[in-house]
Amino acid sequence: MDDWEGRDAAATRGEDPWRDVLASEWGGPDAVTAPGGTAAPAGREPPEAAAMGVPVPRPPGTAADGERRPSAAEVYLEVQRSPAFQEVRGRYRRFVGPATLAFLTWYLGYVVAATAAPGLMSRPVLGAVNVAMVAGLGQFATTFALAWAYARHARVHRDRAALDLRWETQQMTREARVDR
Amino acid sequence: MTGDHQTLALLLFSAFVAVTLAITTRAGRRRRGSAEESSTGGRLFSPMENGFALSGDYLSAASFLGVSGLIALNGYDGMLYSVGFLVAWLVVLLLVAELVRNCGRFTLADVVAARMGERRVRTAVGASSVTVSVLYLVAQMVGAGSLVSLLLGGTGDAARSWTVLGVGALMVVHVALGGMRATTWIQIVKAVLLLAGALALTVLVLLRFHGDFSALLTTAAERSGHGRDFLAPGLGHGGDWTARADFISLGLALVLGTAGLPHLLARFSTVPTAGSARRSVVWSIGLIGGFYLMTIVLGFGAAAIVGSDAVRASDPAGNTAVPLLALDLGGGAGSTGGTVLLAVVAAVAFATILAVVAGITLASSTSVAHDLYTSYTRGRDGGAGRRRYGEVAVARISTVVVGGTAVGLALLARDLNVAFLVGLAFAVAASANLPVLLYSLFWRRFTTRGAVWSVYGGLVPAVLLVALSPVVSGSPDALFPGADFHVFPLRNPGVVSIPLGFLAGWLGTVTSPEPPDEAKHAETEVRALTGAGAV
To answer: Which CATH number describes the domain made up of B3-25+35-77+85-240+261-420?
Structure first.
């Protein structure tokens, strides 16, 4: 029912955090104002207008007319249980879990090998370069590669979904009962 | 060094200090005086700027002087520092940066307290943050001391002590006046200077060997007096099992400590979103990785060109290897080229020290003001009515106290290698700060008791083991060489205290009488991964 452009435009009109998100997340140069400067709100429509085009998943029993509004805590629980959030979390965990395990193992293996097997590590490979040197430089290479892969994964598979969720969650907490 | 050359070196150095102070005052004039502004710099730095600032905060004198020095003395074993310092950033990138940006306000304690919402959690995390910062500060000031005694040509202990005092005083003023924004700019300027300086020296070293890395290594091995052993592990940490366990302990502390450093975590509050936090870390991984690759060349270069014995003669801990290398590359002692290059390197290293000291002092004073002071003065209702002083004022006072403590310890610790001292700070950070941070972000059942236990369960053993180690007593280069009360054999406590921190957190949680707060966990998780409600 809703298209990306409409959503973007809606979000851009707000007066607060999303503006920066959009400016810096999606292509283009980072729209960072000079230190001390404040970014002027782009639009003048009231926030309600911005909210109109966005589908907000409402918890059961929460009609738009406000029969029963959930508290902020309930909103977070609701979002946490939503499939959209579980998907984002799953994508994050499925990448970060194995990757962390892999690089920690590789690094600790390297450290332990350096202490426990100096004979192996000092075997020459090419000229004065030995296994230890190759392994050490290999740590640099894998670090660069993993950093790049993670950033790419997050950008491609997670950022947009997370941003949508952020939008929706904030909308829901804004409407939520103030009881804290 | 002759008098003329000393004057030149001092002039260059003074020029840098003047420039940094000018930046501070400029940035300070736009300051609005709020706690938010003072600790986050307005949150509007770009990822590239913050990437440079992170590198500036991270690449301390320990890296530039200490790591290269250790490589010059111990060959391959010094490289472990380079590798560990870099790989640690993967922990920051994958597990910490974005989530902390989304959940935190100013400090590490904010992230944890957002879930626990209790005063004693804040106090515990605040206390451990300050401890880590003070240890880290000591390392930086020791580096400043050994640098100046080289620059002034062996005028001895008095010059060192005055330098340490001077650096401390300068940075206290700097942080108190400039806050986060000025500090960030200082880090950026410094990172650029440091990378440029290291790059210039690296190019000069490689030119000397006609770009042949293998020839560089061979010469280094020959001139080190150790032969091929110089290029293989075991020289610094080989031998008995204690030395080997120490090496592993250090490796563990290096890789896990970075993500618990309060002054780095505070950096994530200076960018607007989680995405920019992530990209600033990617920037800094690139910059830091490039830098540590250069330290390897510089370290082996110092061994090959200056010679390990000459390095050791100048400073037994090796902290002066790079300045000596610069002197040699420029044409040797007494030549103008050598002096200019030495002066430039010394000024850059000094800039490094000043900037890092500023960053850490800022982070720790924010911790004192924001975590310790407010949690003690805030009433049960969360009101601010009973506070006599504002957060910013308290931060300024604590800047003086933290700076003073670090200066005092630095005067005691001046004969230790700075990279090694940093290793200690990392061990404490990894033991006390990392477990509580990871548990808060990822563990559903984590409770308040678990949080408090995990902080103290890591902090107390780490500090205690250092106090009972050969670093403090019972060895010739200890803080108190006259006394001997060392019980713990390892110089780095990481391998024992890091698991203890995690264990204590788990134990505190499972024995906790209160049920875990599902709603708070949901809030933390949703906010961490989506950025909802982030300031």
So the answer is: 1.20.1730.10
